[in-house]
Amino acid sequence: MKIAFIGGGNMAAALIGGLIRKGVPADHLYAIDPNEDARKRNAEQFGVRTGAAADAALAGYDAVLIAVKPQIAKAVAEGLAPHLAAHQVVISIMAGIRIDDLSRWLNGHARVVRTMPNTPALIGMGATGLVASRGVDEAGRQLASDTLGAVGQTVWFDDEAKIDAVTGISGSGPAYVFYFIEALEEAARQLGMDEQQGRALAIATFTGAAQLALQSDEPPAVLRERVTSKGGTTAAALASFDASGVKAAIVKGALAADARAKEMGEEFGKQ
C-alpha cells in the first residue's frame, strides 16, 4: 500500500503516523505541502518522502489523499489532475466537497472516495464516514478503509448526502463534547473547585461514561435511567436540562452543521 498525501497538516500527519504504526513502511508514503515547516515536520517525525508540489512521482502510488482546506479544493485538484493515473484511488477528507465536483476538477477521474474523519484521529481514536463513487471497486474501497482505519473506526455509506450528516455528528461532534466539558468545568468552579479538580472530574466522567456506553449492549437512554433515582440529584439536573431544552438544542446544532456542509458543497462546487 503506497499513499501520497496532498497537504501535510495535522490530519495528514495523524494518518501517516497511524499507517506507520500499522506496519506501512515510511518509504511507501509521500507528503506534499507547499509549507516548508510541514514538510520538515513530516520528514523528521516519520521519515517519509516530502515535496512542495504535485509531480510525476505521484503515478507510483496506489492512492492520493487530499487533505487541504475546502476553500482551495478546486485549485489543488486542478494542479493535481495532470499527475494522476487512472488506477489510483483519490481519497478526500475535505468537508463539504462533493464527489462529482472533485471528479470534474480532476478531469473526470472516476475513482474517488469522499470521507469525513474527526480530530480524535490524532490519537488513533477517530471516527470516519466514507462513500465511494461508482468507479471504485472493492479493492479500492478496502484501500480507503485501511487508510482511514489506521486512526480509528470507519463506517461506509451508499448515499453521499449522509457524509454531510456524518460531518454534523462525528466530524463536528468532538467540539460538542469539549463544549459540554467546558460547561462542567465552569459548574465545578462555581461550586468551589479549583481548575485542576474540575478538569479531572469532568474529563474522567466523559471518558468513563463513553466507555460504559461502548461496552454495554443497552442503549444510552437505559444507562441514563439507571443513574437517575426518582427525586434525586441526577433527576434534578436532567429536569433542569429538559426545562432549558438542552437535548433539542444539541440536535438542532448537529442539524445546523449538516446544513452548513451542504451549503459548502454548493458554494465551492460552483467554482
TrEMBL record:
One of its GO terms (cellular component) is cytoplasm. Keywords: Amino-acid biosynthesis, Cytoplasm, NADP, Oxidoreductase, Proline biosynthesis. Residues 2-96 form the Pyrroline-5-carboxylate reductase catalytic N-terminal domain. Its EC number is 1.5.1.2. It catalyses: L-proline + NAD(+) = (S)-1-pyrroline-5-carboxylate + NADH + 2 H(+); L-proline + NADP(+) = (S)-1-pyrroline-5-carboxylate + NADPH + 2 H(+). InterPro entries: 6-PGluconate_DH-like_C_sf (IPR008927), NAD(P)-bd_dom_sf (IPR036291), P5C_Rdtase_cat_N (IPR028939), P5CR-like_CS (IPR053790), P5CR_dimer (IPR029036), Pyrroline-COOH_reductase (IPR000304). The keyword Mitochondrion does not apply. Transmembrane segments: none annotated. Residues 160-264 form the Pyrroline-5-carboxylate reductase dimerisation domain. It is found in: Cytoplasm. Pathway: Amino-acid biosynthesis; L-proline biosynthesis; L-proline from L-glutamate 5-semialdehyde: step 1/1. It is an enzyme of class 1 (oxidoreductase). The keyword Amino-acid biosynthesis applies. GO terms for molecular function: pyrroline-5-carboxylate reductase activity. NADP(+) binds at residues 6-11, 67-70. HAMAP family: P5C_reductase. Catalyzes the reduction of 1-pyrroline-5-carboxylate (PCA) to L-proline. Belongs to the pyrroline-5-carboxylate reductase family. This is Pyrroline-5-carboxylate reductase.
